[in-house]
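#onboarding

Welcome to the new folks! Below is a worked example of what a typical request in this channel looks like: someone posts a single protein sequence, and someone else replies with the predicted structure as tokens. Don't worry about understanding the tokens yet, we'll cover that in week two.

Example request:
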Amino acid sequence: MDFTLTDGQKKLVSAFRTFGADTFTPERVAKWCRDQGLPDTVMKEFVDLYYETAEPDIAPDLAHSLLSQVLIVEELSRCAGTTLPFQNDLFNLQIMSGFAGAAEAASIAEDYRADGRLMFALAISEPDGGSDTMAMKTSCQTVDGRLLLNGRKSYVNNGEYAPYILVAAIDKDAGDTGRYPSLSFWLVPRSVPGINAVPISKIGQSMLPFALISFDDVELSPEWRLDASEGGFQQLFHLLEYGRVLLCASSLGMAQAAMDDAVAHARSRKAFGVQVGRFQQIETLLTDMEVRLRNMRSMVYRAAWSIDAADETALGEIRKTDEALRAILGEGDYWLRPPWGFSSDALKAAVSVPMIFWSMDTMDWSVRNRDLVSYAITSEAQPGDIILLHDPYESSVDAALQAIDVLGAQGYEFVTLEELFSCFGVTPEAGHFYLRPGEEVSW
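Example response:
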């Protein structure tokens, strides 16, 4: 897909490039990393520029599409050569927009625009959970007429200093809600008794002050609960995609900064009277770096674009593919695996066939080693698994054949998807997104 920037996108990048070049000098960046944060003036200048360049067709509180946010974060991360707080703020606004009522989200955004700093720190991750949000233990429950919050949250950016904390917690008062526990979000004043924050010592991301926060019998007021937090875990899973893409954009920008430094050094350093950049081995290394950068950029832009324009564009591509299949293979129902595994409620509602994800991701495209990929399959495979492999890689094909021999000797049979669902007595339904027979994707 062609991700050539439009004139408007080029203008946006140029505006933030100027801001980044003027603001993030090496001396300032080093100082701000030591200080673990940016000055208020820099934060306000960023926010002013962010809303001055807002897109007219985007909600005022968010101001930009995800792809535009990616371009902004990438460029500023390249200028600074380090992780900045901006992508966290943009992600936090997405969470607020997704779980709060429209009026509350607009009020938070207006406060952010006026002050230059978000009034809250986001507390989702937990010490024993990491990225597994379903392992969340922090909970709220009514005890003797008091609504109490208990638990711990880790890696809360600005958790020691923000006046409010946006806390995700299991609502135990809701009782058994099935597969997904009842998830609630609370905008809790930092000054409430029972909240304790401890700074986390870390190696990277020096400009971001992370904290471990404990909540011990913190008494909640009902009005602190976000109005629209009924979306639950499925809504959270969807919104976390925004955070992952923005994190990738930051990493992409820093990778480009490393590339720029490497090229500058290769041009300025001489050995035997010749620029080292003219040595064949150095040229090869720089070329490999550039290829990786371009692949990274394409994947990040594609991910952002897919989230921004998933429904309408994806449906158009699906219709064209279905027509091509019918022209080649004849009439029939051709099951769908959405590109990159992206889906949405609108896409699920629009398609007329079952959608298939996978229950085991071998990461074969990254590992590219027959024995390691084969072992990943044979050591973890369970009946009913759908295993993701990529046949353009010879190592993946060899790993699949090797795994088939090993698992076949253990009594496993390899079947088509239709046969697999039939074996488990499951009739797949149109618009449902399956990990394996009887188990659906949760986002």
